[in-house]
Amino acid sequence: MYRFGYYVVAGIFWLLGGKIKKENKEKIPAAPFVVVCTHQTWLDIIYLAIAIWPVQIHYMAKQELFSKKWSKWLFTKLHAFPVNRENPGPSSIKIPMKLLKEGKVVGIFPSGTRKSEHVSLKRGAVTIALKANVPLVPAIYEGPKTFKEVLARKPKRVRFGDPIRLADEKKGTKEEIEKTIVLLQDTFEALKKQ
């Protein structure tokens, strides 16, 4: 279903909005890893998936998207899994950990719409990568924020940064996690300026 969805969606967006510029794709390591991307619009989810193809991303998504039977079926088929962003439980760590152990790629957008969400999601992404002993791959999306801007063929790009390789999980102190969160934020800012 993911492969089918990719070809349908990528084809439609290419026809309507033109090509997307993919920068530094050679920096993407072999799976498993956690890809973390800036998040301002629903379009960055689609364009990140297009840019990183043929790698398939298992997206961490807000649980509200799974509230209806049809949407739960669709998002599950598209490799998304739910997380309660207000009150994250054990599954918010267990599910991505299982996927990473299976050699898959987990996608997290650690910059939510609320300031408190910024920190908690960044901490979650870092903690998951640390516990699974996999690299964090930072990415930024710049381009249309609305479908109207897509139709106007506004330039769009996804730029990948150097993988952030974390220390051994036994050294995963609170200080190290906080230090990595700052590094991740600095990396996002540096990627925007390139």
Automatic annotation (TrEMBL):
Transmembrane segments: none
SUPFAM superfamilies on file: Glycerol-3-phosphate (1)-acyltransferase (SSF69593)
Entry similarity comment: Belongs to the 1-acyl-sn-glycerol-3-phosphate acyltransferase family.
Organism of origin: Heyndrickxia coagulans (Weizmannia coagulans)
UniProt protein name: 1-acyl-sn-glycerol-3-phosphate acyltransferase
Gene Ontology MF term list: 1-acylglycerol-3-phosphate O-acyltransferase activity
Name of the top EC class for this enzyme: transferase
Boundaries of every Phospholipid/glycerol acyltransferase domain copy: 33-144
